[in-house]
Design a protein that fits this description.
The complex is a heterodimer of chains A (407) and B (133). Chain A is α/β, with parallel strands linked by helices. Helix content of chain A is 38%, strand content 14%. Chain A contains 12 helices and 13 strands. In chain A, the strands form 3 sheets. In chain A, strands 2-8-7-6-5-3-4 form a 7-stranded mixed beta sheet, sandwiched between helices. In chain A, strands 9-10-13-12 form a 4-stranded antiparallel beta sheet. The longest helix of chain A has 36 residues, at 249-284. Chain A is globular. Chain A starts with 7 loop residues before the first strand and ends in a 13-residue tail after the last helix. Chain B has 133 residues and is α+β, with helices and mostly antiparallel strands. Chain B contains 5 helices and 3 strands; from the N terminus they run αβββαααα. Chain B has a 3-stranded antiparallel beta sheet. In chain B, a hairpin with a 5-residue loop joins strand 2 (39-47) and strand 3. The mean pLDDT of chain B is 92. Classes of the chains: A alpha/beta (407), B alpha+beta (133). Chains A and B meet through helix 8, helix 10 and helix 12 of A and strand 1, strand 2, strand 3, helix 2 and helix 5 of B.
Chain lengths: 407, 133
C-alpha cells in the first residue's frame, strides 16, 4: 500500500478486533506454563485447570444473557449454532411436524440451513418484512400452523441493524407451542438480553462480533422448559452430547472475557456509539437524495445503512479509500444480485446498489467520524459528476419512465 | 478484491468525462445498462467531415471497473474511423485493464456502448440524407 496510514475501520458488524484484555486472557491458555490442557481430561491438574477456565467462561456468557451456564453449548461460531439449532430441532421434532417459519432478511446461515431442510422434505415459510425491516406481529402469528415445529428470527439484522421484537414473537411461539430460535450473532453487548424474561428456546451467539476471537460461538439451549435437539456433530459426547469435539480452551476463554467486558461496559459504550452514529447521520442527511435503510429508531447504536442515490456503492467504497465499510451493491458479491435484505425492504434495486453500511464500534473515535464525513461529501459529489443518472435526475427526467436495456 | 493499477488510474483520473450535444448531427450517443443492474454507461462520439472520431465523452454509473472501461474506451476511439471503433472487442479492454472474471461484464457493456453510439450516429446520418433528398 502506498498510503501507510491504515484506513478507519467502520465494519464492526463484519467482525471486530479482539479487545487487548481478551487477547491477554487467551494467551494464558496456550503454552506449557499456561492452562493448555484438555478440559475433558479428568486425571490431572492440566485438565482440571482448563475445565475451570471453561466453566468460568460459561458463567460469563450466561451472565450477559441472564441465563444458566448449563444452558450454554460451545460451537465454532454462530453459523454452526444456527445449523445445530434449526436442523437439531427440526430433526428431533419431525414426528410432530415438518413446517418451519423464518424471515426473508435472515442471515444466509439460517436461510441456507432452511433450504437444506426443504431438500429433506420440510416446508419453510419465509416471511416478508415491513419497509422498516421489522416483522409485522400479525403476519408472524398467521404463519404459525398446527404442524409448525420451529420459528427462527434474528435479533439484530447484520446489514441494517434493526432490532426485532423477540419478546412479542417469542410469546406468540409459546402460545402456539412452537420452538423459538433467535440468531443473536449481532446483539450481545449491543442490547440487553434477559432470557429469564424473554421466551426464547434456542439462541445462537458469536464471539467475534463482540471483541472476542473468531472460530468460537455458542448455542443457548433452554432447560426450563427443556428444549430437545438432535446433535449434528457426533463424537466424544462433549457438551452433554449436543456438540462433540475437544473444547478450544483459549477460544472459549476469549469469548467468556469478551462477554464479561460487554456486560460491564454495554451501557456506556452504547451511549457513546449512539452519539457518534447520530453525528454521522446528521452529517450525511443533508446531502441530496440520501435514504436510510431500515428503521432508524429500532436499531442498534452503531449501525447506519444509507443509500446515496445515483452513486454506485462499490465505486463509492473504492473512493472512500481511507475507510473500511461495506455495501449492498451487487458488485461486492460474487453474484450480480444486490443485497437481498435491502430488496426485502422493498427498496428499488438501484438504491440497494447505492448503499453503504457503516458500523461503528469500541475503537471508533469522533475524529474518525469527522474524517469520514469529509471524505464522503467530496467523493459523493465527484461520483455524481460522473453519473449519467445524476444528470438525468437534475434534468428532471423520471428514471422510471426510461426504457432500460437490462443486461 | 484488489484493483489493478490500470483500473485505479482510470478510476481516479477518468479521461474525457462529460457530455456532447446529443442533438448535433455529427454526435452519436449510446446509453446502455440499467440502474437496477448497477451499471449505466453513456458514451458519446463526435465525428469530423471525414467520419473520423474527433471527440468522445462518457459518464458512467457503476463500479470502478465500469468507470475505467468507459474511460479507456473514450481514449481508444479518438482518431479512429467508425469502422475501426466498431471493431474494438471487449476482450481488448479486459486485457488492458487486467479485469478479473467477475468484471468482464463491465467490458461487455463498454463494447455495447460504443456500438450503440455508432448506430445512433449512423441512424442520424441516414435520416439527414433522407431529409436532404
Amino acid at each position: 500500500m502506498d498510503n501507510m496510514k491504515l484506513p478507519v475501520y467502520l465494519d464492526y458488524s463484519a467482525t471486530t478486533p479482539i479487545d487487548p484484555r481478551v487477547a491477554e486472557k487467551m494467551c494464558e491458555c496456550l503454552t506449557l506454563d499456561g492452562d493448555f490442557g484438555n478440559p475433558a481430561s479428568r486425571s490431572h491438574a492440566f485438565g482440571w485447570n482448563a475445565e475451570q477456565r471453561v466453566d468460568q467462561a460459561r458463567e460469563q456468557v450466561a451472565a450477559l444473557l441472564n441465563a444458566n451456564s448449563k444452558e450454554i453449548v460451545w460451537t465454532s461460531g454462530a453459523t454452526e449454532s444456527n445449523n445445530l439449532a434449526i436442523k437439531g430441532a427440526a430433526h428431533f421434532h419431525q414426528k410432530k411436524g415438518r413446517h418451519i417459519v423464518t424471515v426473508k432478511t435472515e442471515h444466509k446461515a439460517v436461510l441456507d440451513t432452511c433450504r437444506q431442510l426443504e431438500r429433506e422434505g420440510y416446508e419453510v415459510t419465509y416471511l416478508d418484512v415491513q419497509p422498516s425491516g421489522l416483522i409485522d406481529t400479525e403476519t408472524f402469528r398467521a404463519a404459525l400452523r398446527e404442524d409448525t415445529v420451529l420459528a427462527s428470527v434474528m435479533h439484530v439484522n447484520n446489514e441494517i441493524g434493526v432490532i426485532q421484537d423477540i419478546d412479542t414473537l417469542g410469546a406468540l411461539c409459546r402460545e402456539h407451542r412452537v420452538l423459538f430460535h433467535v440468531d443473536a450473532a449481532q446483539s450481545p453487548g449491543k442490547i440487553e438480553v434477559d432470557l429469564q424474561k424473554t421466551p426464547v428456546d434456542l439462541m445462537s451467539l458469536s464471539a467475534h462480533k463482540v471483541y472476542g476471537p473468531k472460530g468460537i460461538g455458542a448455542l443457548y439451549v433452554r432447560r426450563k422448559p427443556r428444549v430437545r435437539i438432535e446433535a449434528q456433530i457426533h463424537g466424544g459426547g462433549h457438551e452433554r452430547g449436543m456438540r462433540s469435539g475437544t473444547l478450544a480452551t483459549h477460544q472459549i476463554v476469549g469469548m467468556g472475557e469478551a462477554f464479561h467486558l460487554a456486560k460491564a461496559e454495554m451501557v456506556e459504550e452504547n451511549k457513546r456509539l449512539q452519539t457518534l452514529r447520530d453525528k454521522l447521520y446528521h452529517g450525511l442527511k443533508d446531502l441530496e437524495e440520501v435514504y436510510v435503510n431500515g428503521d432508524l429508531q429500532q436499531r442498534i447504536a452503531g449501525n447506519l445503512n444509507i443509500s446515496f442515490n445515483y452513486v454506485e456503492g462499490e465505486s463509492l467504497m473504492m473512493a472512500l479509500k481511507g475507510m473500511a465499510v461495506s455495501s449492498g451493491s451487487a458488485c461486492t458479491s460474487a453474484s450480480l444480485e444486490p443485497s437481498y435484505v435491502l430488496r426485502a425492504l422493498g427498496r428499488d434495486d438501484e438504491l440497494a446498489h447505492s448503499s453503504i453500511r457503516f458500523t461503528l464500534g469500541r475503537f471508533t473515535t469522533e475524529a474518525d467520524v469527522d474524517d469520514v464525513l469529509q471524505q464522503i461529501h467530496t467523493q459523493v459529489q465527484r461520483l455524481r459528476e460522473l453519473s449519467p443518472l445524476w444528470d438525468m435526475y437534475k434534468a428532471g427526467i423520471d428514471l422510471k419512465s426510461v426504457q432500460w436495456a437490462a443486461h | 478484491m484488489a484493483y489493478s493499477k490500470q483500473v485505479l488510474d482510470h478510476y481516479e483520473n477518468p479521461r474525457n468525462v462529460g457530455t456532447l450535444d446529443t442533438d448535433a448531427a455529427n454526435v452519436g450517443t449510446g446509453m446502455v445498462g440499467a440502474p437496477a443492474c448497477g451499471d449505466v454507461m453513456r458514451l458519446q462520439i463526435q465525428v469530423d467531415q471525414q467520419g473520423v472520431i474527433e471527440d468522445a465523452r462518457f459518464k458512467t454509473y457503476g463500479c470502478g471497473s465500469a468507470i475505467a472501461s468507459s474511460s479507456l474506451l473514450t481514449e481508444w476511439v479518438k482518431g479512429k474511423t467508425l469502422e475501426q471503433a466498431q471493431a474494438i472487442k471487449n476482450t481488448e479492454i479486459v486485457e488492458e485493464l487486467a479485469l478479473p472474471p467477475v468484471k468482464i461484464h463491465c467490458s461487455v457493456l463498454a463494447e455495447d456502448a460504443i456500438k450503440a453510439a455508432i448506430t445512433d450516429l449512423q441512424n442520424k446520418q441516414a435520416d439527414d440524407v433522407h431529409h436532404s433528398e
